[in-house]
Design goal:
38% of the residues lie in helices and 19% in strands. It is α/β, with parallel strands linked by helices.
């Protein structure tokens, strides 16, 4: 039986209306989930987060809430305490909330406690250098149970993709999303679901990439289809 791998479309629009329009387009394009990059909103408050997700309730796709700081391809300039409060609000509306391991440890634990009561947790690590298979395994194994473990690392060459994919395959007892970013990391973005990743991330279309090396959903679906997924 042919397996159709899931694709999560990242939405980086700046207003409630444009996010809703992009979400509708993602649904029409066949997305399986949508990631709402809250840090891209012009106004980011607990009230605006709640209102945005109320508007998105007409979109039947599962929703991932994410706030990426400027240090990680994002636009959020606030501190970890503010980020915790915003993600806690999002947890009351989204299906998943992405919680970054780069947070200050005590605030990370607070965020986990608040989020896991109301939404699924994606515990993510973004590395600005290639990691070894052992490092990837340690990040996942030393995390928390019952969450999706996400590891995204910079790729400088083909071999980094192979490391990420093999690490992903070896962690089959965990829910995980493991891939490389950057121009050299496209291979692992395409192939990661074949090695056990929960889903692959894509942009809505060219020019709307949320991170370096991200393919648009049409291209990603086409390539995966050729490969049998």
């Amino acid at each position: 039986m042919e397996i159709r791998h899931k694709i999560c479309v990242s939405i980086i629009e700046s207003s409630e209306r444009s996010v809703l329009l992009a979400a509708r387009e993602a649904e029409e394009q066949g997305a399986d989930l949508i990631e709402i990059r809250l840090d891209c909103l012009e106004q980011l408050t607990r009230e605006s987060v709640a209102q945005l997700f109320r508007s998105l309730s007409v979109i039947p796709l599962p929703k991932v809430a994410t706030i990426m700081p400027k240090t990680l391809f994002g636009r959020f300039e606030g501190g970890d305490s503010e980020r915790v409060e915003l993600l806690s609000e999002a947890a009351g509306h989204a299906d998943y909330v992405d919680v970054g391991l780069e947070m200050e440890p005590s605030l990370l634990m607070e965020c986990m406690r608040k989020v896991e009561k109301r939404a699924g947790v994606i515990l993510s690590r973004h590395s600005d250098r290639p990691l070894t298979a052992g490092e990837i395994s340690s990040i996942v194994r030393e995390g928390y149970g019952g969450v999706v473990h996400k590891v995204a690392m910079l790729a400088r060459g083909l071999e980094d993709n192979l490391v990420a994919l093999e690490a992903c395959r070896s962690l089959e007892s965990f829910r995980r999303i493991i891939f490389c970013y950057g121009r050299a990391g496209v291979i692992s973005r395409v192939l990661s679901p074949f090695f056990g990743s929960e889903w692959a991330y894509a942009s809505l279309r060219k020019g709307k990439e949320a991170a370096p090396g991200q393919l648009d959903i049409e291209s990603l679906r086409m390539v995966q289809g050729v490969l049998g997924g």
